[in-house]
Amino acid sequence: MAIRIDDLGxxxxxxxxxxxxxxxxxxxxxxxxxREIVYCNIGNPxxxxxxxxxxxxxxxxxxxxxxxxxxxxxxxxxxxxxTAKALLEGSKHGLGAYSxxxxxxxxRDAIADFIRDRDGIDADPDRIFLTDGASKGxxxxxxxxxxxxxxxxMVPIPQYPLYSATxxxxxxxxxxxxxxxxxxxxxxxxxxxxxxxxxKKEGTRVKGIVVINPGNPTGSVLDEQxxxxxxxxxxxxxxxxxxxxVYQENIYVQGAKFFSFAKAMARKSVTDVSxxxxxxxxxxxxxxxxxxxxxxxxxxxxxxxxxxxLKLQSIxxxxxxxxxxxxxxxxxxxxxxxxxxxxYVQEREGILSALRERAGIIAEGLNAIPGITxxxxxxxxxxxxxxxxxxxxxxxxxxxxxxxxxxxxxxxxSGFGQLPGTAHFRTTLLPxxxxxxxxxxxxxxxxxxxx
Length: 451
Ligand SMILES: Cc1ncc(COP(=O)(O)O)c(C=O)c1O
Description:
Layout: H1 10-14, H2 22-32, E1 38-39, H3 54-64, H4 67-71, H5 78-91, H6 105-119, E2 128-131, H7 133-145, E3 151-157, H8 162-169, E4 173-178, H9 189-201, E5 205-212, H10 224-237, E6 240-244, H11 261-267, E7 275-280, E8 294-299, H12 303-315, H13 321-331, H14 341-367, E9 372-373, E10 382-383, E11 386-387, H15 395-406, E12 408-409, E13 411-412, E14 425-428, H16 433-450
Parallel strand pairs: 1-12, 3-4, 3-5, 5-6, 6-7
Antiparallel strand pairs: 2-8, 7-8, 9-11, 10-14, 13-14
The chain binds pyridoxal-5'-phosphate.
């Protein structure tokens, strides 16, 4: 007899991932029927016409087809050819062979340099693991931490559903802590303590806290005091920090700045809080989601635990090699004086300034609609506006109706978690600027009629 749904583990069946849930399935169905759909449901920049960086694609092309390093001199800048050559030498056997489980050493060295330059702190290439996107890194960290069904991981609400879904898969407990919407989604010590106390009462052993900075879906950027506060909380309560920092380049408003947990921990000389920090090629100005590149760095983790992390990595042999090359290009871009530098800077600034403009358009546009309020979109790629719904309606019904009527595909707030009694949706700011203006206008008209 063929396998039946009842044969599956409960954890698999119960895991939820709203970003690609029933609303998206319906959007795809409508698209097949010929409707124009604007996909604002997922942070997938190149699916919304963002152009790949020339430098990155040129390096990748040469690594995939090394003959062009010599024969393509008229097509590829000198520094690109030199970079590809060095990467192939560093990889030893090219892109078709497995690498070390942690990833190519030369790339891990470049990541360590990137962290040193970014934060002014030391970084150890042996404590860096290349992964297929940040998702795989977060999953490894959660797998390491969840050892028992009573083990809990603190997760922000609203959160990116990678965390809730993976905790369900690993059969751990999600311990939700609320971010404060009225304070631009800041974290408060009181809310962390409250969540922890409640978890303890329920017999949960809290092992880690996830922090997403800049925030998905909130679009908020944590200030230095907030980062310090979380480190103090983690230290006092003996929990590891999982710092999801994939949007570190996506900061749009004056005064907002990215503070890494690694830097804050070094500044405070904290050596007794374990830290996993994640970065990715999918976001920032690269938007190379399909290349599945990323890494995580560990700090304050004893050698025997690090060995177990390495063992986990080695079970899948290594992360994909093209993603590793993309990660190298992220952390080691062309330098002033390199032939490809000028174009690189021009493309980077073009993408970031368009995102900055759209962050303003979406927040202002949504705030102008009666019944919708949005915080400033300070970072990341999303707005998470609060909506007033007619009695008896849910945010999922709202988003489905929005899709059916306008072709705009967004994700209901319930997919990320929200304070009971409130309703939201998440939209990306990724559609091309004119399209985004149309999206805002369509949401405005729809909202007025829905109420
Ligand atoms: C907060 C956050 N973390 C991790 C990821 C996963 O990214 P990746 O493509 O690197 O797996 C995403 C993707 O949207 C995200 O928003």
